[in-house]
Write a structure and sequence with these properties.
single chain, alpha+beta, TIM Barrel, 14 helices, 25% strand, globular, binds beta-D-galactopyranose
């Protein structure tokens, strides 16, 4: 472990002590390993009630959904996790939590106690997994924002059903006593309960101050403190489970630099606020995750939120949009969590949710999130390198409400036009042999073509960064601007673009083999001894040049002035490479590791 990482852990431990005074010393000090790739090797698939029902559902809705998942063949396609989401609490009790039995009658036990074990066992006996929900603060989202009758009751302390100060007890209850497999941890409790809120002023709830998330204001938020709380829950959850690592789904809506720390405390994290069943919202949530391919891979996934397939502008009367939505989520390896009423789902929508070729794109074992190859106002092309050699999933997205023609050259996806190329349209179910070197599609308004392209690599021995994002991780973001909110397109590190989204150019064309980063950043590339030599051009993106460094398996192999000259690294047997960009300054915020190629 590098000194920097150790220092970071030390800083986290100090912050934790300051924030979570209610936690025991032992809890703060025991370090736990982060989630492993095998704890969620491919993006999660399942069902959640929230988009279908808001807060208006009960145990029957959950049971019905579970039965439908089985009966409709969805479970066998991989949709296994059934979440109960918010609003299940009656009150916190000294050693446990009382469940709202008017909603969950099967939770009623002898002597007036309650338990979710019967519900969890039912789900398990159906071959499904069970997910519960909590908040990282003292109170929940529904307590703050919903007006339903089913809110926690009792004294102020009893109504503090969130996990703050109770991580160990709650993790034990959820995983060890009740047997859940997953917890979704929301964050309203650390965002929306300041003393300025009327419900706090009026004494209904205790203030949580300072808030750890000030929505849309990263400079006023406290990402390190929030990361510590999630880390603390993760440790408790690991301690509470025996056979498998727990699944933790972080719901901090893309705030507080969750990309930096999410993978240390969970296997997936939301990149934006709640998706709505309209086109604009689905594009918005897609955009919050799509540029972040360097943050995803087996065991760590960007989560643009639940599917709206089957709802609103994605219902049976909008099949083009529904297919587009599904294609977008699949090509960026997003979790696929159905959130429509499966009792009423139409056959056409089911065909979309069940398309095995689309699911195979999402669930491809290489775990590469698709990379944006080109992006214009109306059209966008995203390419996901699949595990089968020479095979790519390509999404050609018409974001607009007029017809559009989009094209893609085979060389842009590193395939040869000298060998046969098969193009499979996974929605139409047609396979054609490509004539020529360009794939062209004519798209209806809001249509996405999802293609599986199978050919021969253009260069037998070379691999490019956009073909292996799952092997790349960002260790340090480096320079962080104050407007890095979920609705700004600032991404600390990405392929082909600088953090603010300007394409990285080489000889007037976009260099899609470049990694654009922030000044002062560190990225790691898992080579696993697979490559012999790497070519790259470290390029300062301003007049300030600075010095970059490269480490192989922790040892410095190159420290030079970033003057834009190409360099070669000899990396035979090297497992990991670390690229450290020159430190930043006010006029020097981004940097590019350009024209990267990895040779076997
Ligand atoms: C939101 C969360 C939603 C849903 C809701 C429940 O904060 O993003 O996915 O869980 O809370 O109240």
């Amino acid at each position: 472990m590098s000194t920097l990482i150790l220092l970071r852990y030390a800083a986290v431990a100090i912050v934790l002590a300051a924030v979570a005074t209610a936690q025991s010393a032992a809890q703060q000090l025991s370090p736990a390993a982060p989630p492993t790739p095998s704890s969620l090797p491919t993006p999660l698939m399942g069902w959640n009630p929230f988009n279908a029902f808001g807060q208006n559902y009960d145990e029957h809705s959950i049971d019905d959904a579970a039965q439908q998942l089985v009966a409709l063949g969805l479970r066998d396609l991989g949709y296994r996790f059934v979440d109960i989401d918010d609003s299940w609490w009656l009150r916190r009790e000294p050693e446990t939590m009382a469940i709202r039995t008017n909603l969950y009658p099967s939770a009623r036990q002898a002597h007036g106690t309650t338990s979710f074990r019967p519900l969890v066992q039912r789900l398990h006996s159906m071959g499904l997994k069970a997910g519960i929900y909590t908040d990282i603060g003292r109170n929940t989202c529904s307590q703050r924002w919903e007006k339903t009758a089913n809110m926690p009751e009792g004294t102020q302390a009893q109504r503090e059903v969130g996990s703050f100060g109770h991580q160990q007890a709650d993790a034990h209850l959820f995983f060890s006593e009740w047997g859940f497999d997953l917890v979704k941890i929301d964050a309203c409790g650390v965002a929306d309960y300041t003393s300025a809120a009327a419900v706090v002023r009026g004494g209904t709830f205790r203030a949580f101050e300072p808030p750890l998330i000030v929505r849309g204001k990263p400079a006023e938020s406290k990402p390190e403190d929030l990361a510590s709380l999630y880390a603390s829950f993760w440790r408790s959850a690991v301690n509470a489970t025996s056979e498998h690592l727990p699944i933790v789904s972080i719901c901090a809506w893309g705030e507080d630099d969750v990309n930096d720390w999410g993978s240390r405390s969970g296997q997936m994290w939301r990149t934006s606020y709640d998706v709505k069943a309209n086109w604009k919202s689905v594009l918005y949530n897609f955009d919050s995750a799509a540029p972040r391919s360097l943050f995803a891979g087996p065991g760590r996934w960007n989560d643009p939120d639940l599917l709206e397939v089957g709802n609103g502008e994605f219902d049976k009367d909008h099949l083009t949009e529904a297919r587009a939505h599904m294609s977008m989520w699949a090509v960026i390896a997003a979790p696929l969590i159905i959130s429509t009423d499966l009792r009423k789902v139409s056959p056409a929508i089911l065909d979309i949710l069940r398309n095995p070729e689309v699911l195979a794109v999402d669930q491809d074992p290489a775990g590469n999130q698709g990379v944006i190859l080109s992006q214009a106002q109306d059209g966008e092309t995203v390419v996901k390198t699949l595990s089968h050699p020479g095979t790519k999933a390509v999404a050609l997205i018409n974001r607009s409400d007029h017809p559009l023609t989009l094209s893609l050259g085979l060389s842009e996806i590193h395939l040869s036009s000298q060998a046969p190329v098969m193009v499979r349209d996974v929605w139409r179910g047609t396979s054609t042999r490509l004539q020529g070197a360009t794939i062209t599609v004519q798209l209806m308004p809001k249509e996405t073509a999802l293609l599986r392209v199978e050919g021969t690599p253009l260069e037998n021995k070379a691999t490019f960064p956009d073909e292996m994002p799952a092997r790349i991780r960002v260790l340090e973001d480096g320079f962080k601007p104050n407007d890095r909110t979920p609705d700004r397109q600032w991404v600390p590190a990405r392929i082909g673009f600088l953090p603010y989204g300007e394409p990285i150019l080489h000889e007037n064309r976009q260099d899609t083999s470049a990694i654009g980063v922030a000044a002062g950043s560190r990225i790691q590339i898992d080579l696993h001894g697979d490559f012999k030599r790497i070519e790259l051009t470290p390029r300062a993106m301003s007049s300030a040049v600075g010095t970059y460094s490269i480490f192989a398996d922790g040892k410095p192999i190159q420290t030079r002035s970033a003057n834009g000259r190409a360099t070669v690294l000899h990396v035979e047997h090297v497992q990991t490479l670390e690229l450290v960009a020159p430190a930043g300054g006010p006029d020097h915020t981004s940097f590019a590791w350009a024209q990267l190629r990895f040779e076997r």
